[in-house]
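User: Predict the complex with zinc ion.
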Amino acid sequence: MTTPSDMFLSPERATVSLRVDGVRLWRSLMDLARIGATPKGGVRRLALTDLDGQGRDLVVGWLRETGARIEIDGAGNIFATRRGRDDVAAVVLTGSHIDTQPSGGKFDGNYGVLAGLEVLRTLNDAGIVTERPVGVAIWTNEEGSRFVPVMGGSGAFAGVYTLEHLLQQRDIDGVAFGDALRRIGYAGRTPVGKRALDAYFEAHIEQGPILEREDKIVGVVTGALGLSWYDCIWTGQDAHAGPTPMEARRDALRGASQMVEAVHALAMRHAPDGRATVGFMQVSPNSRNVVPGLVKMSVDMRHPDDGHLAKMDRELRDATAAIARDLRLECDLQQVDHFPASRFDSSCVDAVRAATRTLGLPHREMVSGAGHDAIYIARVAPTSMIFVPCKDGISHNEIEDARPEHLEAGANVLLHAILTRALGSRVASDSSGTDGG
Ligand SMILES: [Zn+2]
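Assistant: Here is the predicted structure with zinc ion placed in the model:
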């Protein structure tokens, strides 16, 4: 507890024992999860639907109750800002998203936003005045399941997409992003981007099995995997399955099948960090008695090191060319998207690591395998992330689950990482002195 007399201590001594209220955080998570709750215990709250509007209303109400100033930008991103002593200083921002996958869980995204809310509540309860303002962001349409692009709100904030591009996107029913945003009342007037950030921290469930498997509570996230997406079209010749002799066939599905194995082998050669996946395939004409003449497929490749990813790219092209030669097929392989590997800001990673040690929490360093708003924000502000375990590493699924004590621990790391930046430069430079865990 912080007593009134602590206020006369140096800021770091007054706040070192500060902790979030884990019960209150859990209650907020469960209250929000009721909006769009599914019978199997998950959440379906797609971006810019009525349910998303209700979720936003609930969380904005909570943020407003903390006394934070609420602003909404043209992309529907929401910013809640708690005053600092120097109120024009660059903001120490945290946040995530509250839209979900069609059969999503209670924690993906929601945790990062509500952990930020819990930080504001905790600072208020203890009467802490930070030097810099502390903010919580709710980014629009992170999941990308109703509208592309994925991470659209944070991407627009970082200047990756123009607002016009975002507003024109349509869902499968032809509804425009801009119209959906207006309909739920979240087409704000604040300009997109153009906000001075001192730092951005995002807490998130890991969405993978590593922390749980190693019995760690906190992932100190140092960056994110580089990512390359490909479309690949195999062309052979449709032929009758009966009369066509085996040696005369140009079977596009054989090419695609060999490529699935080649893609797997390629990632295994770059273990443990390489990832390669074929997740989509369309066989044409897809008929029982026709040798397939055309197959469309996708490849997703990831690696934390851009040099390795470039090597995987060459190996993919070589393997594809060899298969095509062998089977007398044509193969058109196109890279359709690419994110370079991102390395988070070392001072922000240090802040997370120091907070984790101060709190005495078992932790490991890791890179994010999934996309997050933080990856775009890292392009415009010093950024890092905090991961906590989720049950069996499962996410984007109604059975997604996490333990209250882990969520509380991650929120405490978030609180102290934020304080490292927000209390002022003197404290930030002294922070190694409190690193006693
Ligand atoms: Zn997420």
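Confidence is low (pLDDT under 50) at residues 426-437.
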